[in-house]
């Protein structure tokens, strides 16, 4: 492996980063900060000691970055997100500071293997999937491109559950990432703020009877305590802050009750308060409708806004300049109540009139929409919202009155359209529509891929877009190339540096220079060797964890993401069953060995998603044991998908499965990670696949299936899956095998309802796309048969997806939305 980027980074002259000096510092840190002697230190102790040594260097940069934003009066970006799916931070920090190789050597001097201790760091899994991972990539990119930014979220004690597979079924276990402490965070008790819930609203009138202002008198109060994590940018240029809020009781113990003998009652309130931030809701692309969720949303939003307003006032003394110095970004609608909260602060606390406050609010906020799935569009029953946030309910009504007035005065909307614009859903039970609130209160609303943004304009926000034209814009998602190329694929990084120099480390567009090597046989061989080594590493992991032998020379076909019907793992599994059938009935054909990998978590309450996991495991058991397959096809379900698992699987993939029903995946970011690491995509024209296809060229991607408008048309005209299944013998046989119990002899009817659903409704159009998908897989086989051609295409993928760096995405956000002066 090549030297990392350490030596040429002229930073931290004040520290001696020589391995020997570092080794000494680590020892000192072990003694004085961890409190252990080297002779008894556990690997966890070495991990903590090493992190603290590097952390010192980060803290200096952190303070400098904070000062710089202050003295230069720079506009700050505030990124509010319910989720940050960070993963491990050690490698990120070491590598971004250019200390990776020196730390490796320093630890070697101490007889400690860096990879061993790196593997002990728990993943910070404070998110479900793509949305949370995007927030984490954005935090890293904002620091890397030198944008003063603060992330705000929740410090869940339990992040996304740990998944075990028992007898093929998903079992959820609590995730306990804080068990060994968290050396990255700093508790900031002094930044605690009080958050209210419930209670009443008092209207205060002046002597002449005019309404002066409203005072919210909450019934409950909870303390929000700040925990700060430094986020280091590439080359350590800037260190930003991720501030996560933890809930605590205002009164840790009710002394009067305790002294009166009610010992348990005296502590109940403290327990209740702390439980607010105990656990992350595990549903992805589905609204969690429970009251605790709304409490979480308001809790972190209100704490963040108090923080932002306080910081602004202490520096500038006047809230009229807030939009010039603060851009608040809403990552989906989860923090959208921030709009009502800022209005409340401006009007009720600072005495600003409604119109002025509304103008300031709209200029301050921007909102990203992440999904068009109806079940994911957030709305809250008016009675719940009103009980928990009575003042905010009044403000939402006042905003709505203003919006509807503007809509009516335009005279272009009929009653139905006005009803759709309303912030309150009025048919049946009345609900607050968080998307409409976010739209109305923001100057910018963005989608996350070109297609998604177009569909947004045509569907959910078509009326609001006509009322407020020009607000909707596109910002195609991105991924940080530090984590998703340089750290996870050191082999490919080293090879690229040798071939084209280091420029791509700072500007991924420079990867384009690799294009000329696609036709160079020597380079192709070395590229293939890197891939092979990554595949061997994954094969070892599979052997260790699942006691299953796989052949690293087989085609590694990978679909890893949340398990969801729209992502169509089912289509992939059915195709595997059909292929299994073909291999057995045509043994004479020239089949190529393939290993299909699946990984992903299902929401615990999502019945079909969990059944699909069981099906994958049932099919895997049968196929993997069947001697007549002669090892030509294997199916592997890797448990507990996470950022760290992705970091091993992505660099090892030959084929990237991005096969969602067109129009349903807003962007996807997994698709970008794979392409960057030289996998070829088999995919539908959905989300960012469309743009990946444009970047790599249609010869270097395998596209199949209905397009978004065709899905829509097919549904409109009346889709009949049964007829399609009956005309496709391969599909019919595979479905028959599944529903008749070939893979579930212990419970032959296990999959009957699942398969019946495909015959009857098949909302996600598995049947409609099956033949096209199976044909596309045979095209993949044909490319794979010609190894030099395959590797040339793979190289062209890496070379042409530099545009998907989240640095580019962040620069676009700043140019068009935040205007923080990059
Ligand atoms: C990138 C990533 C995702 C998002 O994957 P998609 O394929 O875009 O759905 C989800 N989870 C983890 C752990 C990731 O790293």
UniProtKB/TrEMBL annotation:
Extract the Pfam families matched here. Phosphorylase (PF00343)
Q: Which UniProt keywords apply?
A: Allosteric enzyme, Carbohydrate metabolism, Cytoplasm, Glycosyltransferase, Pyridoxal phosphate, Transferase
Which InterPro entries does UniProt cross-reference here?
Answer: Glycg_phsphrylas, Glyco_trans_35, Pyridoxal_P_attach_site
- Listed GO cellular component terms? cytoplasm
Asked if the Swiss-Prot or TrEMBL record annotates the protein with the keyword Glycosyltransferase, the reply is: yes
Q: Which reaction does it catalyse?
A: [(1->4)-alpha-D-glucosyl](n) + phosphate = [(1->4)-alpha-D-glucosyl](n-1) + alpha-D-glucose 1-phosphate
Q: Which Gene3D superfamilies match?
A: Glycogen Phosphorylase B (3.40.50.2000)
> Cofactors per UniProt?
pyridoxal 5'-phosphate
Is 4Fe-4S one of the keywords? no
Q: Where is the protein situated, by its record's location annotation?
A: Cytoplasm
Q: Which PANTHER family does this one have?
A: GLYCOGEN PHOSPHORYLASE, GLYCOGEN PHOSPHORYLASE, LIVER FORM
**What does the sequence similarity comment in the record state about its family?**
Belongs to the glycogen phosphorylase family.
What role does this protein play?
A: Phosphorylase is an important allosteric enzyme in carbohydrate metabolism. Enzymes from different sources differ in their regulatory mechanisms and in their natural substrates. However, all known phosphorylases share catalytic and structural properties. Allosteric enzyme that catalyzes the rate-limiting step in glycogen catabolism, the phosphorolytic cleavage of glycogen to produce glucose-1-phosphate, and plays a central role in maintaining cellular and organismal glucose homeostasis.
Protein name, UniProt field: Alpha-1,4 glucan phosphorylase
- Lineage per the UniProt record: Bacteria, Pseudomonadati, Pseudomonadota, Alphaproteobacteria, Hyphomicrobiales
């Amino acid at each position: 492996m090549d030297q990392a980027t350490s030596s040429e980074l002229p930073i931290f002259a004040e520290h001696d980063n020589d391995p020997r000096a570092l080794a000494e510092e680590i020892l000192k840190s072990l003694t004085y900060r961890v409190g252990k002697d080297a002779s008894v230190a556990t690997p966890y102790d070495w991990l903590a000691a090493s992190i603290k040594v590097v952390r010192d260097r980060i803290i200096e940069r952190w303070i400098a970055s904070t000062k710089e934003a202050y003295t230069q009066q720079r506009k700050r970006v505030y990124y509010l997100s319910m989720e940050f799916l960070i993963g491990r931070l050690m490698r990120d920090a070491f590598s971004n500071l250019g200390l990776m190789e020196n730390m490796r050597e320093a630890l070697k001097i101490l007889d400690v293997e860096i990879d061993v201790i790196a593997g002990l760091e728990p993943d910070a899994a404070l998110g479900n999937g793509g949305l949370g991972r995007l927030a984490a990539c954005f935090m890293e990119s904002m620091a890397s491109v030198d944008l003063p930014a603060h992330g705000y979220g929740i410090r869940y004690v339990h992040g996304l559950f740990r998944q075990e597979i028992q007898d093929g079924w998903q079992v959820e276990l609590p995730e306990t990432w804080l068990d060994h402490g968290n050396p990255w965070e700093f508790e900031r008790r002094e930044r605690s703020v009080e958050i209210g819930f419930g209670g009443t609203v008092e209207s205060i009138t002046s002597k002449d009877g005019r309404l002066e202002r409203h005072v919210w008198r909450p019934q409950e109060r909870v303390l929000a305590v700040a925990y700060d994590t430094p986020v280091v940018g590439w080359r350590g240029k800037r260190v930003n802050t991720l501030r996560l809020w933890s809930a605590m009781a205002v009164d840790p113990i009710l002394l009067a009750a305790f002294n009166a003998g009610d010992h348990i009652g005296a502590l109940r309130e403290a327990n209740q308060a702390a439980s607010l931030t105990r656990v992350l809701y595990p549903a992805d692309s589905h609204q969690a409708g429970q009251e605790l969720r709304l409490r979480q949303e308001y809790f972190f939003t209100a704490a963040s806004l108090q923080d932002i307003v306080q910081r602004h006032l202490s520096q500038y003394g006047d809230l009229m300049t807030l939009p010039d110095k603060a851009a608040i970004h809403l990552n989906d609608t989860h923090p959208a109540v921030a709009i009502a909260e800022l209005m409340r602060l401006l009007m009720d606390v600072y005495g600003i009139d409604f119109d002025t406050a509304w103008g300031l609010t709209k200029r301050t906020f921007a909102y990203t929409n992440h999904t068009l799935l109806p079940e994911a569009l957030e709305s809250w029953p008016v009675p719940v919202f009103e009980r928990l946030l009575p003042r905010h309910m009044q403000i939402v009504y006042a905003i709505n009155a203003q919006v509807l007035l503007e809509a009516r005065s335009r005279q272009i909307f009929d009653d139905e359209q006005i009803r759709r614009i309303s912030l309150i859903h009025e048919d049946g039970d009345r609900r607050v529509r968080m998307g409409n609130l976010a739209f109305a209160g923001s100057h910018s609303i963005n989608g996350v891929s070109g297609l998604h943004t177009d569909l947004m304009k045509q569907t959910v926000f078509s009326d609001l877009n006509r009322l407020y034209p020009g607000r909707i814009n596109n910002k195609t998602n991105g991924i940080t190339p530090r984590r998703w190329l340089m750290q996870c694929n050191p082999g490919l990084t080293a090879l690229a540096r040798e071939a084209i120099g280091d420029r791509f480390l700072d500007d991924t567009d420079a990867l384009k220079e690799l294009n000329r090597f696609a036709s160079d046989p020597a380079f192709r061989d070395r590229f293939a060797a890197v891939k092979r080594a990554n595949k061997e590493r994954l094969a070892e992991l599979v052997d260790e964890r699942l006691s299953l032998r796989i052949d690293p020379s087989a085609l590694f076909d990978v679909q890893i993401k949340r398990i969801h019907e729209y992502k169509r793992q089912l289509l992939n599994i059915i195709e595997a069953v059909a292929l299994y059938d073909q291999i057995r009935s045509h043994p004479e054909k020239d089949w190529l060995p393939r290993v299909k990998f699946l990984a992903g978590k299902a929401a615990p309450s999502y019945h079909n998603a969990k059944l699909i996991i069981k099906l994958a495991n049932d099919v895997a058991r049968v196929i993997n044991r069947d001697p007549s397959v002669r090892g030509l096809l294997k199916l592997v379900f890797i448990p507990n998908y996470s950022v760290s698992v992705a970091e091993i699987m992505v660099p090892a993939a030959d084929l990237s499965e991005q096969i969602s029903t067109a129009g349903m995946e807003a962007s996807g970011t997994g698709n970008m990670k794979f392409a960057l690491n030289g996998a070829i995509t088999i995919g539908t024209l959905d989300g960012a696949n469309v743009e990946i296809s444009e970047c790599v060229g249609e010869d270097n991607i395998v596209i199949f299936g209905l397009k978004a408008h065709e899905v829509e048309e097919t549904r409109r005209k009346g889709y009949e899956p049964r007829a399609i299944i009956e005309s496709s013998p391969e599909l019919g046989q595979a479905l028959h095998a599944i529903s008749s119990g070939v893979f579930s002899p212990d419970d032959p009817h296990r999959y009957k309802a699942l398969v019946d659903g495909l015959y009857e409704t098949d909302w996600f159009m598995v049947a409609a796309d099956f033949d096209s998908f199976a044909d596309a897989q045979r095209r993949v086989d044909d490319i794979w048969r010609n190894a030099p051609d395959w590797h040339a295409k793979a190289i062209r993928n890496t070379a042409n997806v530099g545009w998907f760096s989240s640095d580019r995405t962040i620069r676009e956000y700043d140019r068009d939305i935040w205007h923080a002066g990059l």
